[in-house]
């Protein structure tokens, strides 16, 4: 670290004053740790205190090296190495010094050592040792140890999960004024961890934690205002709180502030500002910030599209063991986003994310088993995974589970259950679920036909950018389903769906050009679009392409290619294609027999 960058005055002080300063710094660190102040806040306060004393930071560091004869100087040297104060970060050195102090019997550093074992700071991760050290600190009445022990019981760190025990420990830490314990107790009341759900109580505790300047409490309070947990929804208040957490340099708060700018929550949409905040969070090592930054590069949000950059960022998040990052990386390998397609690698990554309990990873693993992506097709396994994902309230898992019930994939057909699941996913604003629900109303799947509702749902899915919803809305305008016929509007929507790569949209756009629906007839365009959709395995497009080859529309007649595409379409269940395939095959065989006879 460059001392000049900190702006500190480099006044020399005598050794006695340095000794006092060390004691005061250590006292400050322990006090704030037990109050529940976060690491970055404590570090900032340490630097501010040194600056206020107009002390040469390098002189303090040198003095610490030469005065390793008491626990305070040993601890502060470890703290400086841990956080890169006056020196480069040296986590191994920090760990060794923390261990040395604990062996000397200083109870205040036991939690620091436990944290090293929990997170692998300067040593290998050993969650059992972390648990034992937190237990030891808690038994000695160290507030940070009490709170961290509660976290171990809540999350199963080095011990079996015991939600009741976690709740009791958070209560104890909160009663003693630990702001992180107060925040964690709020989480218990919000989610029913070791106690009954009580959103009002959760809100009050988050408010109390926030009043103590705990950035996580501030974030959770913002979440309450965003979702109406114990208080009326107030997006402007949410924005203010996330801004406050970001000002405290909480990387998660910076993320959420970015989301506000991206989605227009409590402020105007500003994709550029969102991108900058995600970059800042990513620079702080926040794995979710890294993922959000990757999404910006993938879709061009606030920056130019750069698929390779997004792939690298997802890979970085995956290396940090972020299950969402692992899932995103799997999707890159599945779809060829910024890298070459590798379905086996995608399958393995989805499995890894699923093992970590990621609901989207579980869903995507189900899709692998359903479609044979990187593994053998196993519809029963796919159904079970969709059910598991749905149980975790994943809207895509719920939608796919509905599809299983609608089509008998891994279970018996149950149209009513499919309708119920699509409705549930639609209520979660899943655009695919909304589209599927619209189809239920259009076709009477598990419910009565309501073309008006179908039209409204397709419009809603279109507003969310769902390509299938856009295509289906085009169908409504073409055929007058729930609205007046408008061929021009239908053509425009098919074009939009096609531009998004939707094979049905591409096929329907081809049909518009073939028959002059909302545009001039252009058989050549129709042929090219059918070819494109057929190559995407769209069975209707394959049938339409075969018709063109059979009849010589915009292309030279070619019975062999017609037979080829009729067969491809028939293999996907198109009965008209099957009939055509059989008819043309018979003609071809008769011709072969005749030619053989006359020869």
Which stretches of 5+ consecutive residues score pLDDT under 50?
A: 1-11
Q: Output the CATH class name of the domain at 378-449.
A: Mainly Alpha
What is the number of helices? Answer: 33
What is the residue-averaged pLDDT? 94
The CATH superfamily of the domain at 378-449 is Tetratricopeptide repeat domain
The total of beta strands comes to: 0
In short:
This protein is mainly α and 599 residues long.
Descriptive terms for the model:
about 600 residues, mainly alpha, Serine Threonine Protein Phosphatase 5, Tetratricopeptide repeat, Mitotic_Regulator, Sel1-like
Care to describe what's here?
The structure is a single chain. With 599 residues, the protein is mostly helical. Among the domains are: 378-449, Tetratricopeptide repeat domain (Serine Threonine Protein Phosphatase 5, Tetratricopeptide repeat, Alpha Horseshoe), CATH 1.25.40; 537-599, no CATH class. The chain is built from 33 helices and no strands. α30 packs across α31. This is Sel1 repeat protein. InterPro entries: Mitotic_Regulator (IPR052945), Sel1-like (IPR006597), TPR-like_helical_dom_sf (IPR011990).
Ordered list of secondary-structure elements with their pairings:
Blueprint: H1 3-6, H2 15-35, H3 39-52, H4 57-65, H5 71-83, H6 91-103, H7 110-119, H8 127-139, H9 143-155, H10 163-175, H11 179-191, H12 199-211, H13 215-227, H14 235-247, H15 251-263, H16 271-283, H17 287-299, H18 307-319, H19 323-335, H20 343-355, H21 359-371, H22 379-391, H23 395-407, H24 415-427, H25 431-443, H26 451-463, H27 467-479, H28 487-499, H29 503-515, H30 523-535, H31 539-551, H32 559-571, H33 575-598
Helix pairs in contact: 2-3, 2-5, 5-6, 6-7, 7-8, 8-9, 9-10, 10-11, 11-12, 12-13, 13-14, 14-15, 15-16, 16-17, 17-18, 18-19, 19-20, 20-21, 21-22, 22-23, 23-24, 24-25, 25-26, 26-27, 27-28, 28-29, 29-30, 30-31, 31-32, 32-33
């Amino acid at each position: 670290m460059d001392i000049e960058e900190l702006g500190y005055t480099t006044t020399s002080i005598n050794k006695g004053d340095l000794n006092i300063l060390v004691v005061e710094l250590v006292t400050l660190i322990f006090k704030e740790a037990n109050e529940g102040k976060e690491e970055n806040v404590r570090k900032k306060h340490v630097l501010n205190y040194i600056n206020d004393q107009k002390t040469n930071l390098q002189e303090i560091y040198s003095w610490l090296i030469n005065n390793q004869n008491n626990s305070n100087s040993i601890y502060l040297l470890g703290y400086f190495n841990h956080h890169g104060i006056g020196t480069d970060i040296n986590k191994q050195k920090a760990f060794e010094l923390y261990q040395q102090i604990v062996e000397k019997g200083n109870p205040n550093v036991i939690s620091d050592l436990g944290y090293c074992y929990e997170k692998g700071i300067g040593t290998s991760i050993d969650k059992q040792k972390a648990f034992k050290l937190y237990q030891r600190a808690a038994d000695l009445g160290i507030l940070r140890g009490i709170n961290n022990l509660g976290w171990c019981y809540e999350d199963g760190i080095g011990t079996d999960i015991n939600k009741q025990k976690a709740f009791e420990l958070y209560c104890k830490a909160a009663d003693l004024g630990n702001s992180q314990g107060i925040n964690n107790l709020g989480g218990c009341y919000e989610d029913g961890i070791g106690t009954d759900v009580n959103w009002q109580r959760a809100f009050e505790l988050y408010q109390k934690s926030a009043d103590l300047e705990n950035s996580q409490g501030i974030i959770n309070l913002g979440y309450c205002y965003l979702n109406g947990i114990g208080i009326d929804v107030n997006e402007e208040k949410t924005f203010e709180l996330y801004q406050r957490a970001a000002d405290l340099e909480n990387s998660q708060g910076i993320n959420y502030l970015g989301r506000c700018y991206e989605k227009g929550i409590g402020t105007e949409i500003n994709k550029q500002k969102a991108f900058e905040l995600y970059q800042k969070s990513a620079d702080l090592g926040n794995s979710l910030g890294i993922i959000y930054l990757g999404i910006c590069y993938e879709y061009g949000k606030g920056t130019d599209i750069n698929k390779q950059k997004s792939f690298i960022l997802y890979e970085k998040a995956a290396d940090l063991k972020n299950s969402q990052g692992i899932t995103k990386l799997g999707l890159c390998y599945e779809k060829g986003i910024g890298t070459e397609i590798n379905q086996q690698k995608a399958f393995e990554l989805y499995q890894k994310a699923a093992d970590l309990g990621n609901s989207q990873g579980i869903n995507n693993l189900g899709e692998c088993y359903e479609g044979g992506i990187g593994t053998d097709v196993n519809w029963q396994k796919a159904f079970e995974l969709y059910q598991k994902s749905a149980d975790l309230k994943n809207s895509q898992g719920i939608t796919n589970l509905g599809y299983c019930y609608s089509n008998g994939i891994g279970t018996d057909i149950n149209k009513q259950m499919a309708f119920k699941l699509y409705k549930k996913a639609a209520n979660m604003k899943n655009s695919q679920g909304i589209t599927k629900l619209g189809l239920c109303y259009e076709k009477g799947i598990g419910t009565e036909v309501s073309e008006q509702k179908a039209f409204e749902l397709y419009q809603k899915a279109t507003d969310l950018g769902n390509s299938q919803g856009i295509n289906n809305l085009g169908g409504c305008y073409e055929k007058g389903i729930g609205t007046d016929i408008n061929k021009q509007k239908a053509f425009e929507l098919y074009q939009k769906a096609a531009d998004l790569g939707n094979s049905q949209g591409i096929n329907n756009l081809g049909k518009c050009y073939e028959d002059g629906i909302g545009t001039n007839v252009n058989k050549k365009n129709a042929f090219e679009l059918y070819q494109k959709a057929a190559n995407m395995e769209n069975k209707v497009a394959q049938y339409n392409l075969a018709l063109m080859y059979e009849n010589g529309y915009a292309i030279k007649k070619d019975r062999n290619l017609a037979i080829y595409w009729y067969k491809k379409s028939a293999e996907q269940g198109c009965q008209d294609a099957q009939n055509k395939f059989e008819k043309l095959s018979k003609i071809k065989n008769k011709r072969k027999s005749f030619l053989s006879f006359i020869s």
